[in-house]
Write a structure and sequence with these properties.
The complex is a heterodimer of chains A (about 50) and B (about 230).
Chain A lengths: L2 H46 L1
Chain B lengths: L4 H21 L18 H28 L2 H32 L9 H22 L4 H14 L2 H11 L18 H46 L1
The chains are: A mainly alpha (about 50), B mainly alpha (about 230).
Chain lengths: ~50, ~230
C-alpha cells in the first residue's frame, strides 16, 4: 500500500469513528426518549385508574 | 427553537470531513528534506485540531468538576459527564493519529521517553477511567464527588502537556502556531484553522448532546423509581 493510500485509509477510519460516535449519541438519545415516553404513559394510566 | 447538540455535532463532523479533503488535496506538500515521510505529515490537519478539541473538553471537565464539587450544580455534573466522554473520543483520535504519523516518520508509533506523549496519554486514560467508572458505579453524591475530584486534579496535566514541548523537546515536534518562529505556510495555516474550528464545533455539539443525554438518563432513573414504588 502506498503512503497516500495508507493515509487515506487512516483518515477514513477516523472519520468513520467520529461518525459512529455521533450516531451512538443520536441512538442513545432516541432510545431514552422512547423509554421515558412509555414510562410516563404507564404512570399516567396508573394515576387515572 | 433550541439548537440540538446533535445538529451542531453534525455540522462539526461535516467540517472535519472538509478538513480531510482540503488536507489531502489542497494543502501544499512539505519539503522532502525536512521529513522522512512527507505524505504522512498531512495527518497534522487532523491530529492538531483533535488535540485542541481534547484540551477544550478537559477544560470543560475541570469547570464541571469544580462547580459540582463546590456548588452541587446539576448542570455541572452533566457537563462533567459529557466532557469526559468528549475528551475520551478526541483524546483517542489524537493519540491514534499521532501513532500513525510516528510509525511513518520515526519508525515507532510511540516514544515512552517523550513527556508530551505520556502526559497526553495520561489525560486520555483519566477520561477513560471517568467514563467507565461512572457507568459501573451507582449514581450518588459520593460517587460524583470521587469522579469530580479526579476531574479537578487531573486538569493539572493540561498546562503541563501544553508546555512540555517548550521545556523538554524530546521527540514530539515543537509548536508551529502561536510561536515567534512562525514556520507555518499560510495555506497550511488556513486548513489547520478550518480543522480547529470544525473540531471546536464538533466538541461543543457533543457536549451539548451529552449534557441532554445525561439529563434524560437521570429523568428515566427517577421515573423508574417512581414506577417501582407505585407498583408495590
Amino acid at each position: 500500500m502506498s503512503g497516500q493510500t495508507y493515509l487515506i485509509a487512516a483518515y477514513l477510519g477516523m472519520i468513520g469513528a467520529l461518525a459512529l460516535w455521533t450516531w451512538t449519541v443520536f441512538a442513545r438519545s432516541k432510545s431514552l426518549e422512547s423509554k421515558i415516553d412509555s414510562l410516563e404513559k404507564a404512570l399516567a394510566n396508573d394515576e387515572s385508574e | 427553537m433550541s439548537i440540538r447538540g446533535e445538529a451542531v455535532a453534525l455540522l462539526g463532523l461535516a467540517g472535519a470531513g472538509l478538513t480531510f479533503w482540503l488536507g489531502m488535496t489542497w494543502a501544499p506538500s512539505v519539503s522532502i528534506d525536512a521529513f522522512k515521510a512527507p505524505e504522512a505529515q498531512r495527518i497534522f490537519y487532523w491530529h492538531v485540531p483533535s488535540a485542541w478539541a481534547a484540551m477544550l473538553a478537559f477544560g470543560m471537565l475541570f469547570v464541571g468538576s469544580i462547580f459540582w464539587f463546590f456548588k452541587r450544580s446539576e448542570w455541572a455534573w452533566r457537563l462533567h459527564v459529557a466532557s469526559s466522554e468528549a475528551g475520551l473520543a478526541t483524546g483517542l483520535m489524537c493519540v491514534w493519529s499521532g501513532c500513525i504519523w510516528g510509525a511513518a516518520e520515526w519508525g515507532v508509533p510511540w516514544d515512552w521517553t517523550d513527556i508530551r506523549l505520556n502526559t497526553f496519554a495520561m489525560l486520555t486514560l483519566l477520561s477513560l477511567y471517568l467514563v467507565l467508572g461512572r457507568r459501573s458505579q451507582p449514581d450518588g453524591v459520593e460517587t460524583r464527588d470521587t469522579f469530580a475530584a479526579f476531574g479537578m486534579y487531573g486538569f493539572v496535566l493540561v498546562p503541563f502537556t501544553y508546555i512540555a514541548t517548550r521545556l523538554w523537546q524530546i521527540r514530539h515536534p515543537g509548536p508551529v502556531v502561536a510561536t515567534s518562529e512562525g514556520s507555518l505556510n499560510s495555506d497550511m495555516g488556513t486548513v489547520l484553522l478550518i480543522g480547529a474550528i470544525s473540531f471546536t464545533v464538533l466538541i461543543i455539539g457533543h457536549v451539548m448532546a451529552g449534557m441532554r443525554l445525561t439529563k434524560l438518563e437521570l429523568r428515566l432513573e427517577d421515573l423508574q423509581n417512581r414506577y417501582e414504588e407505585e407498583s408495590r
